[in-house]
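re: ur question from earlier - yeah i can do the single chain one, its not a big deal. heres the input i used so u can compare w yours
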Amino acid sequence: ASISTHKRACVPIVVNMMLVRLSWLMVGVAVMVSGAEETKAREPNGVESLLINTLQTFSVSPHCTTLLVVERQLTDVPCLKHLISKGLGVGMILGGAVVKFPQIYNLVQAGDAVGVSLVTQYLELFLYGTPVAYNMSEGNPFSTWGENVFLVGQVVMIVALMLHFERRYGMLAVTLVCYAAVLTAACSGQLPDGMLKIMQQIVIPIMVMSKTMTISAVVRAGAIGQLALTTTFLNAMGALARVFTTIQEVDDKIILAGWLTATAMNFVVLSLFAVYPRTAPPASKKDQ
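and the output i got, formated as tokens:
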């Protein structure tokens, strides 16, 4: 009986010892998990490292890449805005690389430039070239203006086609040489101090004039002509996107005012597609 009583007395002791060891084991596991999470936060895995490097290639800040990718804090509004802005900027650059090719294609297919103003194209050379030089001088991120580099090249192609259709090859040679010389001087900082800021301010009224001439050409022709709907739509949406990226990344009221004005004018041009046909109807004998 004494042995049985002794065994019964040892049971609670053994159970208590097992519970103590189990509790210590649970604490150890918790510490290991916590330590693993901290290590993960400090040392991202391969996929996270690749994503971080990709984002930083597009100028996303290291703080935001760590916060969004590693720590998974997807509710951080400033970093989300920063990421969206960079994404829109990259999209704008990629879009800017091809945005005018539909119009170039239309010109080549038609063999003429009906509905497209040559003076407007000269104004656009100024409108796209000036921001390249101005943003370079201000040190603004390439993602906020890079599409202008590609737009300059595409407008040069449009001007070359238009002058080719009119057989004005001397005018084409003068245009290319003079524009290249002025743009090179502006981008290399050879213009007088303050000149680029004045040129950037002039961009706004010239842009309004350019779009007004496009609108006027369509109204006079009574048809859209060779204007491309895709190009016009991308121009309107791109200007709207640039309003957002400028607010997020560039503290420059001149640039912001320019993009706000561009957005309004591009949507006016876009509305013409709902009013005018692609080609004007043939004149009736009564009209003749």
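Residues 1-7, 24-42 have pLDDT under 50 and may be disordered. not sure if urs matches, ping me
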